[in-house]
Design a protein that fits this description.
heterodimer, A: mainly alpha, Cytochrome Bc1 Complex, Chain D, domain 2, 3-stranded mixed beta sheet, two-stranded antiparallel ribbon, 7 strands, globular, B: mainly beta, Immunoglobulin-like, 4-stranded antiparallel beta sheet, 0% helix, 50% strand, elongated
């Protein structure tokens, strides 16, 4: 039986509507976030973390009662301007390639004499349970605004860390047999309503890397790259990524190198 | 003690443009934690702005304001160099006052 012409076209119309809905919903959610950003103008709640981080950096703390102002983040003791744009890097004193977060841990334990258990007590803050590491990271990263990412990979250990990060990025594992690359090596793809960031091109890596840490509106918290990576491990259904581990630092170094030359704008604001 | 606010106050012609970021959990009292227990309400109820001993703005807030609130308003009668003081009070008896110079 042939359907009357009118209802056929309305059927097609409603099919088209159904097909275009996910796209429309995506635009609305991204537009809503853009609108939210516009409302803030230059203000970003990340500044609250920067303020607290500055205080933590400058206040004498720990059993040794010293501030972190003698902490060497790679550009000499106390130099924070542009330091994040050159991390992760090799540190002679620890004999390790370190990212900012793990380097801050080194300074808090060696300079200030704080026990590691205390430093790691709150890695990722939640409301009143504030993370000193997140606050310090926000403060230090903000001092790299306008600096260009520079990861020369001069030291053999840096090359090795990069190679580790690269191999993890493409290593398929877990119940879905996903690699980071499964979700992050094509543009214009999305999962649920989130656009999947393309991380294997220079432009894509720069757009992503230069904007972390970020204030996550959905959590009302500032999150750092260590958080971003462990959350993607979770999305990939892998075992929990260890904070400051070789894999976390290797992946960070891999992404930073991919973003070479990008201008830091973080802390930014994310959905 | 609660964390400091981040306040900016700048002259825009005749009016003072004020932008404030506050550090606060703004718990609604409607949420449950992982163990199913209600997270007690804890939010800002009152915000006041004072300039030259005059209240230039006062606001009554409820549980539907976002975590780490961003608040902006404008007022007349302030001038460059004047001090502006902002105070909030919350349901748990917490309060915080911060001051800036208008520029």
């Amino acid at each position: 039986m042939a359907l009357p012409a009118r209802s056929t076209s309305s059927l097609i119309a409603s099919l088209l509507l159904a097909l275009s809905l996910p796209l429309a919903a995506e635009q609305t959610s991204e537009e809503a976030i853009a609108e939210y950003h516009a409302m803030f103008g230059d203000e970003n709640p990340a500044e609250l973390w920067q303020l607290r981080g500055e205080e933590l950096w400058k206040t004498p703390r720990g059993p040794r009662e010293v501030s972190l102002e003698a902490c060497d983040l790679g550009k000499g003791p106390g130099v924070i301007t542009g330091a994040y744009a050159e991390l992760p890097r090799w540190f002679e004193d620890t004999g390790k390639v370190q990212d900012l977060e793990s380097r801050l841990v080194t300074c808090m334990t060696t300079l200030q004499g704080l026990p590691e258990s205390e430093v790691f007590a709150i890695k990722f803050g939640d409301g009143e349970r504030k993370s000193d590491l997140e606050a310090l990271t926000a403060y230090v990263v903000a001092a790299s605004r306008g600096s260009r990412i520079s990861i020369p990979l001069d030291h053999p250990a840096e090359k090795a860390a990069y190679a580790l990060g690269e191999s993890v990025f493409f290593y398929r594992a877990g119940p879905h047999d996903f690699a980071c690359a499964t979700c992050h090596s094509e543009s214009g793809k999305r999962i649920r309503l989130q656009t999947l960031p393309q991380l294997t091109t220079k432009e894509g890596a720069q757009a992503a890397y230069t904007r972390w840490p970020a204030y996550r509106v959905s959590q009302g918290e500032l999150r750092t790259m260590e958080w971003r990576l462990q959350d993607c491990f979770r999305q990939q259904r892998l075992p929990q990524l260890k904070y400051g581990s070789d894999v976390a630092i290797g992946l960070t170094l891999y992404l930073a190198r991919k973003a070479e030359g990008g201008e830091m704008v973080a802390p930014s604001i994310k959905r | 003690m609660p964390d400091p606010m981040r306040i900016r106050a700048v002259m825009m012609g005749e009016v003072v443009d004020v932008k404030i970021l506050m550090s606060h959990v703004m718990e609604t009292g409607q949420r449950k934690d992982a163990d199913g227990n209600v997270v007690p309400a804890h939010y800002i109820t009152e915000v006041t702005a004072t300039c030259k001993d005059k209240t230039v703005m006062s606001a009554a807030w409820g549980p539907s304001v976002a975590k780490n609130p961003y608040f902006s308003f404008r007022f007349k009668g302030g001038a460059k160099g004047d001090k502006l003081s902002i105070t909030w009070k919350d349901t748990a008896g917490g309060t915080r006052t911060d001051e800036v110079t208008i520029n």
